[in-house]
Amino acid sequence: MTETVLRAAAMLMGVYAIIIFALFGAALIRGLRWKEQARVTVVQLPLIRASLVEYLAGKEDLEPLRRFLKVSHNDVLAAILSFQNAVSGSARDRLCGLAIELELLYEWRRDLRSRDVPRRRAAFAVISFVYAYDPCRRAVGDLLTDSLEDRDWEVRVCSAQALARFGSPAEIVTIFRMAVKENLLTRILLAEPLRSHALELAVAAVPDELRSGDVARILATLQIVVAWERALPLAGLDEWILHRDREIRIQALRAAPLVTASNANDLAVMQSLADPDPEVAMTAAAVVGRQRISAAIPALVQCLSSGNAALARTAAAALAALPPQGWQTLEELAGSGDATTSSLAADVLRRVRPVESK
User: Fold this and answer.
1) 189 to each of 44, 158, 162, how far by Cα in Å?
2) Arithmetic mean of pLDDT over the chain
C-alpha cells in the first residue's frame, strides 16, 4: 500500500515538473520573440517614419510601406499613430488615406472582434484617428456610434473623442450628454474635443442639462463649461451661483467670467461674498477682481475682517484689481487699527504700486 502511494506521488511530482518546465520554456520562447521584435522595431521604426514623411511630402510610391507591413506590421501602425498630433489639413487626410490604400482599415475592423484586449483597443485607436478623413468615415459607418455602448471604457472614450471632433451635430450633442453622465475622468478627456463646438452646445445642449433638476448633471455640465474656457451666451447663471449645493455654487462662480455679463450675475456674485462657506466666498472674491465689480468693494472689506486668512488675501487681491476705488480702500485699511488687516493691505499696495509707476 505504501509503495503504491509513493509511486503515485512520484508520478504526480513528475507531471508537475513537466508542466513547470513547459511553462518555463514557453516563457523563455516568448521572451526571445519579444526581444527579437524589439530589435526589429529599433531598426525598422525610423525607416518607416522616413517613408511616411516622404509619402506625406508628395511621393506616390507605396511599395516601401507595403514591404514594411510584411516585415513589421505593428511598427507601421505605431508609426502612423505617432504622426496624429503632428499633421493637419491635407497632410492628415493623406496619412489617413493610407488606411484605405494599404487595405488596413478592413484589417482593423476585423481586429475589433478580437478577444485580445490590447489588440482590440489598438484597432479602435487607429480607426478613431483615421475617422478624420471623409472616405474613412464613410467606410467606418456607424461603428463608432455603436461603440459608445461598448463594455470596455477605453473603447467608449476613444470612440467618443473621434465623434466629438468629426461627428455630425447630433452626434456631438450625444457625446456631450455622455460626458455629463460619465465620471470625472471621462469628462476631462471629452471636454477638449468638445471645446470647438462650445458655442453650438451652449444653445443646443447646455441649457437642457442645467434645467434637468439633477444635481450631478448640473455640476458635471458646469465643470465642462469651466474646462472649455470659452465665452458663452448662457443666461440665468445667477440661479446656479446661489444654488443650495456648495459644489454647484463654486463651479457656477468659476463659470461667471465666461458667460454673458448681467446685473443679475453680478448681484449673485456679491451675495456669494457673504457665503458661510469660505471657499465659495473666496471664489466669489476672485470673480469680483476678474470682472471688475466695483460695487462689491464694501463686501470685500467685510471679507478682510472675516478672520479667514485665505479669504482675506483673496479679497485684498480683488481690491488691488479695482483701481482707483479699490486702491483707495486699501490705503485706508493700511492705516486702520487692526494690525493684521493693515499689514495685509500695505503688503498688497506695495506689490501693485510699482506696476502703476511703470
Assistant:
1) 32, 9, 11
2) 88
Rounded-to-integer distance, Cα 105 and Cα 127, Å: 7
**For residues 164-188, average pLDDT:** 95
Q: Give pLDDT tens digits for 178-202.
A: 999 999 999 999 999 999 999 999 9
**Whether the bond into 257 is cis, omega within 30 of 0:** no
Q: Which residues have C-beta within 8 Å of that of residue 5, sequence separation ≥ 6?
A: none
Tell me the C-alpha distance between 37 and 337, whole Å: 76
Instruction: Characterize 54-86 residue by residue with b for buried, 16 or more Cβ atoms within 10 angstroms of its Cβ, and e for exposed.
Output: ebbeeeeeeebbeebbeebeebbbbbbeebbee
Q: Cα separation of 101 and 265, whole Å?
A: 55
- How many other C-beta atoms lie within 10 A of the C-beta of residue 253? 29
Beta bridge partners of 232: 259
Residue 186 parent element (H or E): helix 184-195
Residue 235: CB atoms within 10 A of its CB come to: 12
Cell of 15: 507531471
pLDDT digits (tens, 9 = 90+) for 292-322: 999 999 999 999 988 899 999 999 999 999 9
Q: Which three cell numbers stand for residue 254?
A: 468659476
Q: How many CB atoms lie within 10 A of CB 226?
A: 18
Question: How far apart, in Å, are the Cα atoms of 4 and each of 10, 46, 274?
Answer: 10, 64, 88
For residues 229 and 193, the answer to whether their CB atoms sit within 8 Å is: no
